[in-house]
Amino acid sequence: MQHPVGSPLPPPHQPGHGPVPGWSPAAHHPGPPQGPAPVPPPAPGYPMAPRQTPAPRPGPAPAPHPGPAPASHPGPGPASHPGPGPAPHPGPAPASHQPAPGPASHQPASAPHQPAPGPPAPDTTGHVPLPPGGPVAVPSVPPATAAAPDPTTTTLAVLLIGPAGAGKTSVAKYWADHRRVPTAHISLDDVREWVRSGFADPQTGWNEHSEAQYRLARRTCGFSARNFLANGISCILDDAVFPDRPVVGLGGWKRHVGPGLLPVVLLPGLDIVLERNAERSGNRRLTDEEVARIHGRMAGWYGSGLPIIDNSQLDIPDTAHLLDEVLSRSIASPPNW
Fold it and tell me: What is the DSSP letter of 26?
């Protein structure tokens, strides 16, 4: 038999002798015991059971007292005699030898305990949980002694209103691009044109289909704005909202986004919108008659209480700067609409 390298070897076994009771590897190393004897590793194929640390003894351990030979080996003679002893006395077959209890590492361990399976991990691959996008609340009014809030660092929801050719989309993009906080631009016309087959073009006549697609686009824009705002991203929306249709226009935006939406009207002179409309192409270009009719209806915003910016003589950066000033006043004193 081969013993693991480094483990103490037992005394040589001779015929006619049983196991040497009380033998300890410490007997071959004089001196006071330095703790529990080292435990040899288990034979190959036996799993290692957890080692149990024996309780500390108050003093030096007494010398092992040799006891009588086990019943399964009745041969006489002192156990420590190294020479050959008398022949064993014949008798009944010895009982099955039960190994003496020893440290836990000598006992074959039972099958390792299998922990109970826990709940499966949630499948989050490719999924980003988002907070619910609730309606935007009205901005809190700061005290009269407080400084005016900085609209460039505040999370806002802005609705830029104006006729075709007023420059809503250009101003909204510039304003969103130059903010110091994350800001998204949501254009109603862009969302409305997501419909490819079956697109209801108002240029071919305003009917129930074009009206339905406008309402659907507003709901989609409102849903997107609420998701952006719920995640700390400001947004600016632009739409040609008419003052003589409050339920469909401004009222619809208020329902879709929330009462905290800040509307601002962009209304240059008629000659300016006609000039800008002439530079357009595709279904965004309207006839001069249609542009004049829309501009006339937009004049109803005067006296409505909403802030109005006349950008007839302003370029895009100056208009965006003026928009910040108007929003700062709207935050301090939200308009009633």
Answer: G
